[in-house]
Amino acid sequence: MGLKGKGKQWVTAVSMMSALLSGLCSTTAMADEAFSICTSQLANKALEQGVSQETVDTIFPSLVYQARVIELDRSQPEFVQTFPGYFSKRVTDWRTNKGQEMYEKHKDLLHKLSDKYGVPPHYLLAFWGLETNFGNYKGKMPVLDSLATLACDPRRSKYFTQELLVAVKLFERESLTREEMVGSWAGAMGHTQFMPSAYTHYAVDGDNDGQINLWNSEEDALTSAANFLASLGWQRGFRWGREVQLPEGFDYQLSGYKNRRTLSQWSELGVKQADASPLGDDDTKAYVVVPAGHAGPAFVGYQNFRVIMRWNNSEFYAIAVGVLADRISGASGIIAPLPDLPAYSRNDIIGLQKKLNDRGFDVGTPDGIIGPATREGIRNYQIANDMIADGFPGLNVMQSLNLVDKSA
């Protein structure tokens, strides 16, 4: 069959998968046929990109559609994660103690990596701890099957097709087995949960055995993490950020990445370290992060804070990495208490977004996610209603919009 015919067959396969996922077609036989056609086309793409016939024959005919992967890709949590809930489950005594234990095991390597890449040992350990509990849980989903399932699904087919093809090349290059290629439902792999493209570009043979194996070699995983962070722009000699005290009457419109200032400028505005000592006279740029509203802890994030977010684009994650790293190195955790925040459902936040839009505070299409547009809309609403403008959906905001019982 010519390439045009193959292209039509590929479109047909994706269309069939779409119909299946929409509930228009439900029989196992039809699902198997659609997946088989799709993976056949993926096999041809792999051959076109230089993968050997032997590897293609080893992998593609035995790929298995993973319905659970699609369920996880489509699922959304019922409740919106709050910072206290997120942080308390991730920055724990167990992870701190285990990180210190792993430092003793790998301290020679960790200091060599710090010298070479500029990333201090406690940060590498914090990433490792948050990603897989120091290798205790690397995921159990078959990576090649998961990536093939997502590649054959129309929602993000292009991205996952690329990741699958890279994974197949890794399988060949590193002489891996399908049994050891397990990971998250989305295809993240090994101790440091690298996607195949990150594995290809940044993984390093840390134990010098001639193979890069992020599942079985802790040395490879730690070296790869250091190389990845350096490539993302880690600034040698700088912290992630720190907890701070904000002055009474602080203008929360000054928070956020767009409002970066030098530490000297923040000091002039009354910002102090968490223990009330001076923030310092320095030209290092930082921005204020208030993850739980004005009632919760406040932080300043430096450039390395943004580097952490390039690994995982979440301020909650970046704070967790930073504080866990501090604790592993012997420092204390957060000084300010974590507030007891209300547990909002996604429907609560959708209701909030609708109300804000109705009142002229545009937050975009209601989706139940508290992103930058929603925080800005809340902040503008708070300003208009003489509230503390921290951009956080506190109980007073929800009550004023009649979204929760005012007696709560």
Automatic annotation (TrEMBL):
GO MF assignments: peptidoglycan lytic transglycosylase activity
Alphabetized Gene3D superfamilies for the sequence: 1.10.530.10, Bacterial muramidase (1.10.8.350), PGBD-like superfamily/PGBD (1.10.101.10)
Domain Transglycosylase SLT: 36-326
Entries under InterPro entries matching the protein: Lysozyme-like_dom_sf, MltB-like, MltB_2, Peptidoglycan-bd-like, PGBD-like_sf, PGBDSf, SLT_2
Pfam family, one: PG_binding_1
Ranges for domain Peptidoglycan binding-like: 346-401
GO BP annotation list: peptidoglycan catabolic process
Alphabetic keyword roster: Signal
Keyword RNA-binding attributed: no
Signal peptide: 1-31
NCBIfam families: MltB_2
PANTHER family: LYTIC MUREIN TRANSGLYCOSYLASE, MEMBRANE-BOUND LYTIC MUREIN TRANSGLYCOSYLASE B
Name of the molecule in the record: Membrane-bound lytic transglycosylase-related protein
Species the sequence originates in: Alteromonas naphthalenivorans
Lineage, broadest ranks: Bacteria, Pseudomonadati, Pseudomonadota, Gammaproteobacteria, Alteromonadales
